[in-house]
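Quick start: what a row looks like.
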Amino acid sequence: MIKLQIIGNLGKDCIVKDVNGKTVINFSVAHSERYKDAQGNQKERTTWVECAYWTDKTAVAQYLTKGKTVYAEGYPDADVYMNKENQSTATLRMRVQSLQLVGGVGGENAGQSSAQNSGSVATGAAYTPSSSNTTPAASAPVADDLPF
């Protein structure tokens, strides 16, 4: 099994469609990466992933607007086709199984919205690591307590 996980910004508002009696929410996620090339020049590469989220509940669609940051998990699919210039082009697609709003422009996504495969939507505080002593790692035995 191959699983794809992406975090990125929506390039445009989502589109909700009915296909053969089922509902699909289509959206595009962009991930930009900055790096230096061999000559030391700063470069930026953007990868787009076309996402399809098949669900009965479309309440999450109102939050999938341009610029929002999302985390999505699902199964990848690549599509190769000939573009207008008659060149072979590939598109990365994902069938979304899990979706979360993780932050965004102007803090509009301060909360977290999660949509699982069942189509349910839950809201709550976004996860942030804490330095309190209640974490499982803090209660783990010290190296001296290990039997080997």
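That is the whole record. The chain has one domain: 4-143. Residues 4-143 form a domain with the OB fold (Dihydrolipoamide Acetyltransferase, E2P) fold (CATH 2.40.50.140).
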